Amino acid sequence: KMSWFWLYLPLHLLMAACLCHSIKALTTSSQQSFKTDLFNFYHSLILADGKETTVHLLKDIPKRYYFVLEEGRALAPFTITVTPCDVPIEWSILVHKASASFQAVRGDHDTHEVSKSQKAPSMVSTIFNYKGNSVENYMGKSSHSALYMLEFLSTERDTHISVYLATDATSGHLYPELPMDPRIDVIGIGHTTVTLTWKHSPSVLQHRESIQYCLLVNEKHNYKSLCAAETAIRSSGMKLPPTLALSLSPYLLEPQQVMILSNSELSIINKASSGEVRQICMGTKNTYTVANLSPSTQYYFDIFVVNLLTNASAAYTGTFARTLKEPEPEVTELKDGKVIQVVLGGKKQKFYSLQYQARHKKIQFTFQLCHGQVQVHITKNGKTVALENILGLRYFSLKGKLLDTYLVQLRSSEESNSSVKVQVSPHFHKPLFPLLPESLKIKSFSKLRTCNSVTIAWLGTQEESKYCVYKKRIEEDQVWMELQSVDRCSGPQSRHKSEKVLCKYFYDVNPQRAVTTETITGLDAGTLYLFDVYLIGPAGIPIRYDGKVVKTRKKC
User: Fold this and answer.
1) Buried b / exposed e across 445-461, counting CB within 10 Å, b at 16+?
2) Which residues form the signal peptide (predicted)?
């Protein structure tokens, strides 16, 4: 009697021994069949028991693995789990039964035994096969008189899969369990949010410390496994940490990734030309609201329950949802000569729209940036006539027909709020905003600085205007904040009376000579001061020069 102990010998020795004993006992066709079977097993690999095996497949080239069980485990259950990580694959489980062949080998080689072998249908039979890209699980009962072979084939392109064999009941906890109903329910949809809920995994209830849920959000399609999602993300040009569940360290991130950790939730955002993919691990919560989505966009959501100890995961049935369309922004009518100030709520507010119907052929739009950064987009009868980011004071002189409709869309280029003043008027109308000098910078003279005085200068215009100077004592660590938080549209009325230095009128018909200086006295030694100059035109609208920080001398 041949013991299954021989199966643990090197496979080529075992096959050679079997071939020598049986080749004479078989007919020509049987000999050829047996040789083919032995050749197939010879080109197979041993499949590890109780651990995940990564298998790399080349296109159209089958790959085979085999496994046998220890003696005394007849009819013991075993499971095989195969996870495709990319394209659909074909895979089969074949069983190699030795009964008929080995009867021929150990008999007296008489006609009766040979004919018995000839009547045996085949040494190898297929007990399971599958084609697709879903995670598939096979459960069976082993036989001590059989050798099992797994055959994998990819017909689309090179790919890789993971295979898990478990022959021990105690090793069946590698993959977390899914609930009886593994669907994800969408319970709320907004313009930029989607709320999801799902039933708890039994593994979470039993092993709360080592199990967590991770969510994948993208705009392309659902993924049937975490390994399939990681493969797709990498192929799109984004580099992904080794696994979603263990991506808890910032040093694992690539430049095109952003990690956000708040309220015990880890979010990783991968950016690529095909859109962004978000990964969010939220512990053991089974309800989650995905925020900061784009309006009127379809998103796909996948939940994976992940075993942090084994790094194995199971996928819920993915779902999708479309965020609500953003409501059309209200349109404000502009009136000739009237100045309005618009406050924009950062990037979250798409546009602020203004509309004007021309009563003259030539018109002029005026924009004064008060704070932040603002993009201006002007269309005439639906066609773009101006698009740019504005700085300071900006005029747009446009020519068209009577009753042309102009639409002005204002958008903040910063995360924080921005504001801008807007005016439209006929081209011949006297502008409300004052005439501006070539530069709004204030100059200080280092050689004229003393312990208690500073001399500054600024440019004027050919138009007689009022100029008011203000000073403010500041600390070293306040300089950046003071200069960044300036509201350029605010006038002297927003300043404290104690900060006022003087107001004066001046102009010069020659722009080259329209320069004025002022020496400010009564200052403290070795102290930083912020100086501001306001230009106030005939209509009373103020223009604020760029602030200048100057420090008085410490010793004189």
Assistant:
1) eeeebeeeebbbebbbb
2) 1-25
59 and 156 Cβ atoms separated by less than 8 Å: yes
Please name the residues in contact with 368: beta carbons below 8 A apart, sequence gap of 6 or more.
Answer: 392, 393, 394, 420, 421, 433, 488, 489, 543
- One-character DSSP codes across 104-139: HHHS---HHHHHHHHHS--SEEEEEEEEESS-EEEE
Residue-by-residue DSSP string for 6-30: GGGS-HHHHHHHHHHHHTTTS-HHH
- Which residues make Cβ contacts (< 8 Å) with residue 497, sequence separation at least 6? none
Q: Which residue has the tokens 């035994």?
A: 113
Q: Within 13 Å, how many C-alpha atoms sit on residue 344's CB side? A: 31
CA distance 385 to 406: 9
Tokens 């100029």 correspond to what residue?
A: 467
Backbone angles phi, psi at 206, to 5 degrees: -90, -35
Question: Measured at the alpha carbon of residue 184, what is the angle toward residues 178 and 188, in degrees to the nearest 5?
Answer: 150
**Hey, what are 21's tokens?**
């004993």
- Identity of the residue numbered 446: S
Q: What is the dihedral of CA 518, 523, 525, 531, to 10 degrees?
A: -60
What is the pLDDT, as a whole number, of residue 134? Answer: 86
CA quadruple 134, 135, 139, 140: dihedral sign = positive
Pairing of strands 352-357, 331-333: parallel
Domains of the chain (ranges; CATH) run 42-98+123-166 (2.60.120.680), 174-239+274-327 (2.60.40.10), 331-426 (2.60.120.510), 442-551 (2.60.40.10)
CB 335 within 8 A of CB 305: no
Cα–Cα distance measured from residue 335 to residue 425, given in angstroms and rounded to the nearest whole number = 8
Pairing of the two strands 352-357 and 405-412: antiparallel
* Each residue's pLDDT tens digit, 412-441: 888 778 899 999 988 666 677 888 898 999
Q: How far is CA 91 from CA 150, 194, 424, in A?
A: 7, 38, 72
pLDDT computed for residue 504 by the predictor: 95
The whole-angstrom separation of Cα 442 and Cα 517 is 10
Q: Token pair for residue 320? A: 């999708």
To the nearest 10°, report the CA torsion of 490, 492, 497, 503.
Answer: 160
Instruction: Please list, residue by residue across 519-534, b when 16 or more beta carbons sit within 10 angstroms of its beta carbon and e when fewer do.
Output: ebeebeeebbbbbbbb
Task: Give residue-wise pLDDT tens across range 135-179.
Answer: 888 988 876 667 888 999 999 999 999 898 888 765 556 788 899
Across residues 477-493, what is the average pLDDT? 86
Tokens representing 53? Answer: 């095996």
> Angle CA(48)–CA(49)–CA(55) in degrees, nearest 5?
40
- What residues contact 325, with CB distance under 8 A and at least 6 apart? 191, 295, 296
Q: How far apart are CA 223 and CA 315, in angstroms?
A: 8
Two structure tokens written together for 424: 């439209």
Q: Whole-angstrom Cα distance, residue 6 to residue 295? A: 66
Tokens of 281: 């691990």
Identity of the amino acid at 406: Y
The continuous run of DSSP H or E covering 33 comes out as helix 28-42
> For residue 524, what is the DSSP state?
P
